[in-house]
Amino acid sequence: MPRRPTSTEKSLRNLLSLVGGILLEIVFVVWFMVLILGAASATLFLLHLVS
Amino acid sequence: MMGIKDSKIVVKDLGFLLMLIAVAMMIPVIVGLIYPDSAGIPISSSETIDDFLLASALTGAVGAACYFMIGKVEDMGLKHAIALTVIFWPIASFFSSLPIFTSGVTTSFVDAFFEAVSGWTTTGLTTIAGGGAGVGADLFPHSINMWRHLMQFMGGIGILLISIVVITQARTGSESISMMTSEFSSADRVRPNIIGTAKTLLYLFLLLLFICSVILLIAGMNPFDAVTHAMAGLCTGGFSTHGDSIAYFNNPAIEMATVIVMIIGSTNFAVHLTVFSGNYREFFKNVETRAFMILLLAFTVVGAIWLSSPVAYGAQSTAALENSFYHTVSAMTTTGWTIVPAGVFPSFFSPMFVFMLTICMLIGGSSASTSGGIRQIRLVLIMKSIWWHIKKSLMPPTVVFPRNYHHIVKKTVTDSRMTDIYLFVSIYLLTVLLSACVLMAHGYSVENSLFEPASALTSTGMSTGVTSFTAPLDVKMILMIDMWFGRIDVIPVLLFIASFSRKFR
Predict the structure, then answer these.
(1) Is residue B294 part of a domain?
(2) Amino acid B169: pLDDT
(3) B202, B205, B211: which to substitute to probe chain A, counting the most A Cβ within 10 Å?
(4) Which residues form the domain of A43?
């Protein structure tokens, strides 16, 4: 029968998953920034070409 | 109507909160011991230790008197929750302004109080800490700077806890009341258990604070600046330890790092917890994060076009894009940091760009975050309701169509909710216009007169220079009232005032 995780192990696991979640969200935000800056630059470049 | 019995309930809870503030005042004392002196600063941190100890003793004594002298009281109801929410901010600001005033960083109690109101409401407007390089916050001791940022951190956590815990604790709370605070309706509740929710939020904030501090440290800030700016950014406050705000650092890595902190701070906490629990798609599916992405892109492009056009001031495209992006993020998240030096702001940007930032501030960040403003969910629902109205008008009367949107789960909009939203937006915009009239009476330009109250009401903290040490007293007063009204979303103040009327017996 598998051993039940202790409360310390449970807390540690929760903390790790939370830290992982936060880091993943930071990656999302960075990706989102790159996307917006890229799209904005492209729009400005196109406008520059048109004008 | 509020009676003596009701007042006792509110005062007892207020006393408990004041005792917590008294304990928090010990943190600047510790900072004062770690950084006793700094070169070139007129008042050293060690000189402020007795100011914080005295203020802590006074706050603690008043809090203890309120808490222990009132015996056992009934459980808190909705009207008590509203009353506590309304009176807490000015009272907390009064006690928090004491160490700022007695330390001697300002000779005016009004300015010390203004700073504390701005801190607790997570606004970031300042009459004493701005002004440019080498003045303002640059000359403050570490202890005072820590206290300023700590107020924003506690104010940010406080507004979330009050909106989620206190309002939901008041079990009679209607949907409209929950919405008026932060749209944190029953489906969004982090956990059904209230204490559990409060603890989860506190742990999450502390963990986010640690991670954001590390990000800012890696970007190039010193440890003290990293922690204080993480506190201010995470709670979308906007205070800085420098008179020139983020422009002081003149470092693109720090600019980008602060953008990350601001966006995380303005994201709905229910979305955070959904993502952290493994549902990663929610970040991209959520109606508010989608709205934020679209609006940020649109405003960044429009702003950059204005800034790079010869009519405005003809900035280079990259500089225009950088300034437009940073200030749009700062305004929409209602943080208020800037990357242009103080004093240059009004002349650096065209009136059109300033007006665009006013609109961004009024839209604000996500609900259930520390951001202010009308909030994206309300804007989205107003936009959708216009579309639904057109659809309804053109379709046969027998056709029924769903009025749904995705926010954690699929939700349906009711007519009463839409009425609440329109009511809120009307009162919000009316408050901005009335405040702008006061500023215009003093001869400020139309765009500045709209910008400054919008900045105060939405708890942003950007300034075109109106907010300063030399500003007239009534302008400072009106901005303080705006900050207070805006932080608790205006309507609870009206409900609180109305609760004293005999008509509502």
Answers:
(1) no
(2) 52
(3) B211
(4) 27-51
